[in-house]
Design goal:
The protein is flat. Helix 5 crosses helix 6, helix 5 packs antiparallel against helix 9 and helix 8 (195-216) packs antiparallel against helix 9 (222-253). The chain has helices spanning 3-31, 42-51, 76-92, 94-105, 111-148, 160-177, 180-189, 195-216, 222-253, 262-294. The model is unreliable at 256-261 (pLDDT under 50). The chain has ten helices and no strands. 75% of the residues lie in helices and 0% in strands.
Length: 295
């Protein structure tokens, strides 16, 4: 394909992916208010960590026994619904736009590379979902810690936009951060990060992970920071062990370059025999010539 054909192909793939995300956003926008069978609505799922707070920490805006967020601007609820719908739609339609990305880069890969890419894509989806699930479990504890710092002098009525932004940021940060072991394994596969370097840099990298967790978590509470840092340290150690296994296997399967192959040895033996037989033949020819002259 020419460059122009590649550009048209990229445009087509991006258009299909964008349409898929938009359709998913519409589904997520409707799902925010209406449950889907036994699955509760997105609004219920998003407000559940806030509603899990003790009653003394929050105001029941809808009356006793209810739990609702505060709307401070006319279009705040609409924008919150739109934001949550787009995020949910992107996750729901991830197989579609990931396939479009896969279909665009596949022609430039070998068969072995295509096989490894499929594995990496599947692992990336699983890791992102695992990180988001861990963040969702940490949100109630983080909120209770942050809101409880005021003691009995404060009571909370969180604005919908701020609260949803906090939850989405935590979900996205955890999900993306969980891609770290996949990145380490990929760099090890291509030879950029061998196990020897990872072993030397292990302490520094783990310290950097804790610093990253302290900076990246939006609430800066100890539970979310320690949860993210601990999970990243465990995943990094798992990736290091995978790199160790890969490098050992590669060292066993790769022949030593300093050792000659069987073909080189046989070629050397042929050259050696030719060098030892040619002088003998030359001497024999010289003896025949002298004998004929003498005769």
């Amino acid at each position: 394909m020419s460059i122009v054909e590649h550009i048209f192909e990229l445009r087509h793939r991006l258009a299909v992916a964008l349409v898929a995300v938009l359709v998913g956003a519409v589904v997520g926008f409707l799902w925010f208010q209406y449950p889907i069978g036994p699955i509760p609505s997105l609004g219920t799922l998003m407000t559940k960590p806030y509603c899990a707070l003790p009653a003394r920490f929050r105001i029941n805006l809808g009356g006793a026994g209810t739990c609702k967020l505060l709307q401070t601007q006319p279009f705040e609820a609409f924008m919150v619904r739109m934001k949550v719908g787009i995020a949910a739609g992107s996750v729901l339609t991830s197989p579609v736009w990931l396939y479009q990305l896969w279909a665009f880069i596949t022609p430039g890969l070998r068969s072995s590379e295509q096989r490894f890419t499929k594995i990496f894509v599947c692992c990336a989806v699983v890791l992102f979902a695992s990180g988001a699930a861990l963040a969702y479990l940490i949100v109630p504890v983080a909120l209770r810690t942050l809101i409880g710092l005021g003691g009995n002098q404060f009571i909370s009525a969180l604005a919908g936009n701020d609260y949803v932004g906090f939850v989405l940021a935590l979900l996205i940060i955890f999900g993306i951060s969980f891609e770290l072991p996949l990145l380490v394994v990929m760099l090890n596969r291509v030879g950029i990060l061998p196990y020897a370097k990872l072993r030397r840099w292990r302490r520094g990298i783990i310290f950097a992970l804790f610093v990253f967790a302290a900076v990246a978590t939006p609430g800066n509470d100890p539970f979310s920071m320690l949860g993210l840092a601990g999970a990243l340290a465990i995943l990094f150690e798992f990736a290091v062990q995978l790199a160790k296994i890969h490098d050992r296997r590669a060292a066993r399967t790769t022949p030593d370059q300093n050792m000659a192959t069987d073909e080189e040895i046989s070629r050397f033996n042929q050259q050696l025999r030719s060098m030892t037989t040619e002088p003998v033949r030359a001497n024999d020819d010289a003896d025949v010539d002298r004998s004929t002259q003498a005769g």
